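Subject: Interface between my chains keeps coming out wrong

I've been trying for a while to get a sensible model of this assembly. When I model each chain on its own everything looks fine, but I need the whole thing in one frame so I can look at the contacts. Pasting all components below, labels as-is. Any help appreciated, I'm running out of ideas.
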Amino acid sequence: MSAAHNKLKPQNIARSAMILSPVEQLAPLPAPYDTCDKVPEFTELKPDWIDTRCASLDGFVAIDSLRRPASPEDEEEFVRSFIVAVGKLFAHHNSKFLRPLNLTVDYCAKCDTCSQACHVYQATCKQDIYRPIYRSEVLRRIYKKHYTTSGKLLGSFVGAGIDLTWESIARLAELAYRCNLCRRCAQVCPLGLDNGMLAREIRKLFSQEMGIAPSAIHEKGSMLHLNVGSTTGLTRPALLDTIEFLEEDMSELTGRKVRFPIDKEGADVLLLHNAGEFLTWPENPTAFAILFDEAGIDWTLSSESLGYDGVNYGLWYDDTQARKIALTHAGIAKKLGVSRIVIGECGHAHKALAVSANRMTSEVGVPVESNISVLAELVREGRLVFDSSKNDFPIALHDPCNVVRQMGIVKPQRDILKAIAPQFLELTPEGVNNYCCGGGSGFALMHSGNFEDFKVKVCARTKFTQIIDAFGKDFIDPALPKYVCAPCSNCKGTMRDLFKHYKTTATYQVHYGGLVELMVNALASTKTPYLEFLQ
Amino acid sequence: MSYIIAGFILLALLCFVLLTAYRAWKYSRLPLHARLELYPVPKEGGGRARYGGSYYEESKWWSKPRTLSKANETKDILMEMLFIRKLFDNNKGLWWVSYVFHIGIYCLFAWTVMLLVSTIWPLDVHIYTAAIAGMAGYCLATLGALGLLIRRIFDTDLRSYTTPVEYFNLILILLVLISGIISWLFVCTPFFAASQILFFTGLALSPIIYIHLALLGIMLIYIPASKMSHYVGKFFAFHKVLWDNDPNSKGSQVNLHLQKAAKAAQTQKPEWLAPHTGMVAPATEQIPTSSERGNEP
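Reply #2:
Try treating it as a single job with all components included. I did that and got this:
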């Protein structure tokens, strides 16, 4: 990598360059992929994308909706609007984040400890723009220049000022989407500061003030969710059809009666899935139905708009969207009169409803918990009986950031796996220190332009290394099935794309899936294998 | 002159305390923030803090008593204060210089206290303790500050992010330390100077001591206004943000704060301009529930 690209200071974000910092080197993968990507190749953008969007940061485009201004007046208005948005971030408009935001902006000692913890920075062989402090320092300098007395009086002496043009601002917006918001950087900060949170704050000012966000998570994400009922576009009639089909199909496949109670008033549990599961991994909601039925849990799904899709994309980029979605979920549970909401295998849905929504209003709503804790209790109480020999193949556990590092659910999934998986393996590092899958914060859904390449080859690189290392010499044995247990839809989406790109499943029989599928596969009462690759 | 410098240094000490308190008060007055905890949270009891678990590991967590460990939380913050453990665990190269510097600063705090004690109550034990703390403090803090400055100048990764004011901070500290070393080694004992200041005796002091005391006074007033007051920020960042996982439950402190915030929000509406921010959540459809459909209850 050329020194010019690798030694960029924060103020260089405004430097004139076709591509400020192209990815020219990637960290090597372990064998058998050690010869891959020596000279990384990425999908070339269409010329009109280069002309109309911001591809000048690193050659990738995450925000497909961010267009170049048509005139100098438009650019001026864009810059003005951005400066106003930065001010609002530090004012009462953003009251719920003022304390952590101010602490991070005021006290960063620039010790660079956070960079060593970042999988994106490590995967790109330490490319400057991907340091967690790079984007934070850019925002800090802009804020200081326009909104602090010291910045106005002393300027660059106190590190205030970045040249603001459409290009530099758009690069900052893009840079906010080179972070998975896994917050591993915050975990290692000696001062307890949070550059991951700050990346989200940058996304937020662009979305909430300027209406700029990737269409996959805004127009086709949270807006679709609010308008149609699900980010998948699944409407209530379509959901009911899908469930009817699943009940028939899965009953036939498993040889047992599978049923999905819908809108059952007064049930103990409202189970909230990521609706993507119904369409992409139907074996997952089916596994929940089988386990809850076997354990005798009184549960229901909701068919109300939003009630059958527990995702909350607002968590990644927009407080106003997050609030609307979370409060609607809470309202649906209240209306149904359930005793508790149980979140299915969706990491960010856990964080959104169990953690973030908990302080969105003063109202204390229906309590929320994770399916993992519920299932672990069922296992502990012996309400589910297993024959673990059915899962006698290597199984590596991936820890979704939202469930583990950001919610503190670490042991229950391990207790379950110890009961059902004789060859259970940990990734290294594991638990709260685990690495993001690479698809966090919406990346799993963002496929426009060439962003897919950035996700698979850069963001998921450390995770892929962890997986290869965890299986050791068994990895290359095509006769031995191996399974990455990823109890999160987003993480599974990333594994799907990752394994497809590197032909991992086809060549080495490395599969991925959730935890509940493994549990059903190991149920003593199951007559035929539940996992497709064992059938 | 000596009266002025004596008054200034005492005023600077007072400013240091008051401005630090003001800074802490400002952070404490900010509205209750969104939950941003990161695990491990050391106050989690029942052995959970060790591996990063939380009360969410319990099914029906809201119906069970929370096990909290104040002792573990105190132990964790003490490890941070005394050993800068996070830096040790994650950035050992920088830890050595940073730790030497911070231990030096702690010794100088002890020295200041003992200097005052021995001026008022000049027992041998007080004087020797002060002398040892002072020597250790000046040596370690100077070495550490020099190390931090050299590291920041020659490490290209750190240099890229370092602003002039951050060099200024380190240079100011070094000037205070070096002028102090010259004063106490070659001009007069710190015990003598301390008694001059404390009792306003008005004897003339050497110019280098005036310079040292003036720089020290400026630094004491400047620290709370600068990022060198991270001792305040660190408390809030850990205790009030990363380790704050208290749920909003009926009658809880969190709930009281949220009720206050809801009242404040009625007068101070957050106005973001993107059209979707003004959109209200769609009214939930009137889907018949199972009882309305005549299904089983």
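Reply #3:
Confirming on my end. The mean pLDDT of chain A is 95.
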